[in-house]
Amino acid sequence: MDVVLEVVDTFIADYAYSYFHPKPPAPYDFPSPSNSTDTIFGLLVYFIVATLSYIFIFDKRTFDHPRFIKNQVRLEIIAANKAMPVMAIITAPFFLLEVRGYGKLYDTTEDGPGLWYNFFQFPLFLLFTDFCIYWAHRWLHHRLVYKYLHKLHHKWIMPTPFASHAFHPLDGFTQSLPYHIFPFIFPLQKMAYVALFVFVNLWSVMIHDGEYLTNNPVVNGAACHSLHHSRFEVNYGQFFTGFDRMGGTYLMPEQWMFERNMKMSEGRWKKEIEKVDELIEEIEGKDNRTYGSSSTKKTQ
């Protein structure tokens, strides 16, 4: 991540540091540059990708869904902005260790295992992190943990792209931990690490954009993750369906989800919200969401 540190410091962070955090008359700096760089880079990726997805991809008819929350987009952005600075502080030690050379990050092919690994590192990263996130995600749904850490992210029954990072900071840290652990266990080329960091953030936005492109049996795409938000205890995987299939938690999206008009029909919504409401009562108890749809506005 020293590549990210150099780029962000050169073009953005140095100006931000001097303006917002003038150097204090102390023997050490706090907040540290690592914390600030983590926050700035994370917020930039989040806002750029989520905003583009929201403008060009997200179906605005979702606003009329009976379980779309009042002022939801604003609430998602607020939650994300609260979470990411805290996550940056928590992950800064990993970032610092990487920059100081304690991990297995390398610069060139000659420094790594070989040319073959330049290609192999990508599927290895995705499979390793998907396995870890699957079990971390299942743990976050444990009844003793869910209401304290993961419930906030499930506030969004019909998420928008801005919901991708709208979670409790410890929830976000738990699910991002495999990304930070990987380069301490396996070799990883530095630019590949940056590319994968951008990709996982892009992917997080994509699986919350509500655009179901294909019913792929291998990829845990937006349709699968939308079912996770509405069915709660299914489709825990981040990238693939394999670990859900092995763990007995896979729920295959139905064909109507890929038919644009059917997906957005009020008749289909009415059928679906009956099950959603049953699960909310079973898992969360009293529903304290304030919904924005004028036809079925619900405040509890």
Automatic annotation (TrEMBL):
Keyword Transmembrane attributed: yes
Transmembrane portions of the chain: 40-58, 79-96, 116-136
Intracellular or extracellular location(s): Membrane
GO molecular function, one term: iron ion binding
Domain Fatty acid hydroxylase, chain residue ranges per copy: 123-249
One GO term (biological process): lipid biosynthetic process
InterPro entries: Fatty_acid_hydroxylase, Sterol_Desaturase_Related
Coiled coil: none
UniProt keyword annotations, A-Z: Membrane, Transmembrane, Transmembrane helix
Highest taxon, organism lineage: Eukaryota
GO cellular component, one term: membrane
The protein's name in its UniProt record: Putative Delta(7)-sterol 5(6)-desaturase
